[in-house]
Specification:
- By secondary structure, the protein is α/β, with parallel strands linked by helices.
- The chain has one domain: Rossmann fold.
- It is built from ten helices and ten strands.
- The chain has helices at residues 9-26, 41-52, 80-87, 109-122, 159-165, 184-188, 203-211, 235-238, 244-254, 257-270; strands at residues 2-6, 31-34, 62-65, 67-69, 99-100, 128-131, 153-156, 178-181, 192-197, 229-234.
- The protein has a seven-stranded parallel sheet, sandwiched between helices. It has a three-stranded antiparallel sheet with strand order 4-8-7.
- Helix 1 (9-26) crosses helix 2.
- The structure holds 2-phosphoglycolic acid.
Length: 274
Amino acid sequence: MLILIQPDEAGVATYAYEWLRQRIQRKPRLVLGLATGSTPLRLYRAMVEGYQRGELDFSEVITFNLDEYVGLSRHHPRSFYRFMHEHLFSHVNLRPENIHFLDGLPDDVEAHCEAYEAAIRAAGGIDVQILGIGRDGHIGFNEPTSSLCSRTRDKVLTRETIEDNRRFFGPGEEVPRWALTMGVGTILEAREILLLACGPAKARAVAAMAEGPVTALCPASALQLHPRVTVVCDEAAAAALQYQEYYRWIQANDYRLHEVVQKAKQARDTQPDH
Ligand code: PGA
């Protein structure tokens, strides 16, 4: 797990945008897993601006969103589909047929979730999964005690998550208690994962994810088992990390690896009898 600490939320978004831009440019038909919530909003804004500048082309990109509330139709103002539509989909040239979303009103939950998994497989698997993290360590809507091998399914949300989500709903509006979500096992099959975390409320979850035991009590800790996870967090979200100094040391030195090898090679090659 590579942990990068940025000074603030803007720094997190700038880094995340650059990380993602390189991947979309390298593979125009990128299969991109997307997340909702406040955290990725600045990244989505940067993606829209990148598209408007002509830097990004989404015409081949395929997306799969992590989760959706049960009981809300796609067009409901608080649905995650609507959220994505408002913040990203309607502003870039993603093809509607390349956008995949769980349906909050499925006829048959199990069949629908299986079909979602099948669609991910048919697309060739997720190349890059963007994640946020809940205060309780959830990823997607995999709440504490979720199986670390779970697949896409329905989940009852914790009271804490329901309270956290209330800010997106109007006064008197009921906050859904159920969601459909990709499982932890589904997420772990993504080839690369980018997790973003901002603000002091996430500090405890970030530390448990990166430095705690791998446990269903913090579903994000399962990311320790994935070989290619990049965590980008701001100072506040990094505050409880025990090995902060080491992560900063890595960050300060890592990019120089290539440079050091090149220099050593040049020195070797200029010696007469290398
Ligand atoms: P947030 O949610 O970005 O709104 O904090 C993150 C999450 O619950 O995964």
